[in-house]
Write a structure and sequence with these properties.
Length: 218
Amino acid sequence: MSFNFDRRTFLKGAGAVGAASLLAACGEKSNNTGNGAAASGAAAPNSTGATPLKEFISFESGNRELESWNMLYSQRAEDANVVTNLWDGLLSFDCYGKVVPAIASSWEHNEDATVWTFHLRDDVDWVDCNGEVKAHLTSKDFLVGFEWVMNAIKNEANNTSMPNDTIVGAYEYYQLTKEAGDAAADMTYEDMLAAGVGIEAPDDYTLVFTCPSACPLL
């Protein structure tokens, strides 16, 4: 099931919080779902048989360095053209601009379209640049990513306007972290939830967003 929205900013904001680290979420099912991070100084095992990535050059990076590979932070369109090809959000758009599933396989809303529930696929892993599986993706990763975006000390970016406008309590939490100063660096998604931000993960594959006003269908 899928919907078309007249507030694409909500979908972009929801997709943006899908990244909880600088690893990339891979949509292909893998038999290896363990945390196979290599020990410090050791090379990661190449279980895929692919040639490890040594250098990356694209039409965007050929003449300049990217400002940031952090998809939660990057504010430049040129960077986004590269990093958005390295991860999936909850939803995506097809070539006709229609909303289609990505990490979320289905979703629904309440009667007034202020509460949106996304049901995540259970076959998505975090992988590194060589395609090595590092961890299994769950709804908790979205909480971690959202907290990082909305934490003024961790983020220090200007990309908070969409979640500020579309998620209950997001702006207030951002201001709280600014007032907390350096102590905000130790705040976690549990602190965010305790502050009343409208995002929750009832189980490993369900994510719920609460909006301050309706995000209706077209």
